[in-house]
Give the backbone structure.
Amino acid sequence: MKLHHNPASPFVRMVTVTAREAGLADRIEEIFTGVFLPVSPHEGVISDSPLGKIPTLVTDDGTALYDSRVICEYLADMAPDKNLLPASGDARWRCLTLQALGQGLADTAVNLRYETALRPEELRWSEWIDAQRARINRSLDALANDRMAELADVTVGSISAAVCLGYMDFRYPDDDWRTPRPVLAEWYAGFSERPSMKETDPAVLV
Ligand code: BEZ
């Protein structure tokens, strides 16, 4: 399998952590096609995905899968013994909703970065920036206040949450998300010791 990749992307990292937890990392060739500038996607990604977005996974039979949620579900399906995505019932919907919360948090953190690091200063929209910051804080509160039970298991949901917290540290090192959320901070400290997290740490790879 071939993965269009940039180690700075939290969406890519959700896939690379899931691949490691599934025991499938050695079957995936990572190809750097994720340019930093969102206005000029790499031709290599566009040839496999009309969206031109990373991650895109090309499976062994040539099928292109995107986005990260679909790829993570595909990898979880290939390793049913790991229970990275509960098969049915309440546990499945709670896990998928936790994953969606992590995805939404990553979307917001990445969009905020584009706005504050890439958009010319005179074009920035301060109310929009404030709204993204408020969304990030609400989402972090939701993880800390409502999701600790699901975070106990290693699933596509808890991976998504951990990767977002890693992205906050990577791109927003001055934002102290830990002090108001000590239980979440303790959980993350433990989760980030997993080999899957250490091997994909953007602070080391980028
Ligand atoms: C980043 O450098 O923060 C980044 C790169 C690719 C996708 C998303 C974020």
